[in-house]
Amino acid sequence: MNKNIKPLKLIILLIIVYTFIVLVSGVVEIQQFISEIPLSFYLVSLSFPLFSHLILSIRWHILVRYLGINIPFYENIKIYFSGLALIAAPARAGEAVRSLWLFNKFKIPLKIGIGITLAERIGDLLSAVLIIMWSLYSNIAYPILASAGLLILYYLTKYFRLFNRVSCNLKKIKSINYIFANSSLSKKVYSIYSTVKDLTKPIPCFLSTFICGVSWIIESIFLCLTFQQFGFYLDLGQSVLIRTGMGLGGVISFLPGGLIASEVTGIAIAISLGVSRAEAVSATLLVRFYTLFIPFLFGLMTYSFSRDLRDKS
After folding, report:
1. Which of 140, 162, 189, 293 has an alpha carbon 20 to 30 Å from 93's alpha carbon atom?
2. Which regions of the chain are under pLDDT 70?
3. How many CA atoms lie within 13 A of 71 on its CB side?
4. Is residue 30 part of a domain?
């Protein structure tokens, strides 16, 4: 348990420091906009990150079940939400801690949890790319989405077939075969790769991408409503472009929680769409609070009340 406390404390400290800096540096500029939003909107807004991650937790459950692992739905939901306590890790890699809970509580190999986490990130990326295409070319959305989706799935499966051929040919070489046979690290890496390969087959990959796409749209609707509170009206396509751009900007930066990079990306896209700087900063920071800090609190609360997970850590 001590091994998990240190990174958790670091994540909490980073979020507190980040929140303090945001409030201090931007209070003059955004105070007017934030104060004009009614309290009821703040309370209702809690449902957006909750519903978004509830959908993503269902994706986690589906991927676990797809691998032939029968874990009760409630346990999977609890494991998923507890993992949100480490949502601020770069590229959300900290959520791989779920693999540890699966192993300690259900004796499921670590490769399963890690493989599912990696497959989730692939689904996140594919859905973000497809949704951005839709937001940019909404007049021909369906043909583009269908074509792009089929092409991506085709080349993805083709890539894995090529990888299999290369790895099989390499194993025929005695020296390399010796390394594969005697290196525990290579065996672990290959087992994780095998899990990811199973989860990137057309059916699970489509489900993962589709479910994550729904999550992106939910958060984009929240962003759209936030801008409306500031008196600026964006359509759903523009809101989707900003929200997915924020997500991709944060992932590419490899900073904890995508801090700074995600905000800068969102603000820049919003300003390019005609939003004033003050409105762009206010809306972006508010959405980031609800999509980063609130899920972190959900995760922390779930983990705190899940004594079985804490004991198994």
Report:
1. 162
2. 1-33, 89-94, 137-186, 250-259, 312-313
3. 26
4. no
Distance of alpha carbon 171 from alpha carbon 178, whole angstroms = 8
> Residue 23 domain-assigned?
no
Residue from 271, 246, 272, 274 nearest 261 by CA: 246
Q: How many domains does the chain have?
A: 1
Asked if 256 and 89 count as a contact pair (C-beta separation under 8 A), the reply is: yes
Report yes or no on 166 lying in a domain: yes
pLDDT digits (tens, 9 = 90+) for 214-235: 999 999 999 999 999 888 888 8
Cα–Cα distance measured from residue 118 to residue 154, given in angstroms and rounded to the nearest whole number: 19
Distance, CA of 99 to CA of 73 (rounded, Å): 16
Could you count the other beta carbons within 10 Å of the beta carbon of residue 290? 21
Q: How far apart are CA 180 and CA 174, in angstroms?
A: 10
pLDDT at 232: 85
Q: Print the domain residue range for 129.
A: 2-17+45-312
Using CA atoms, how far apart are residues 66 and 171, in angstroms rounded to an integer?
29
Question: Among residues of the chain, what percentage have pLDDT more than 90?
Answer: 25
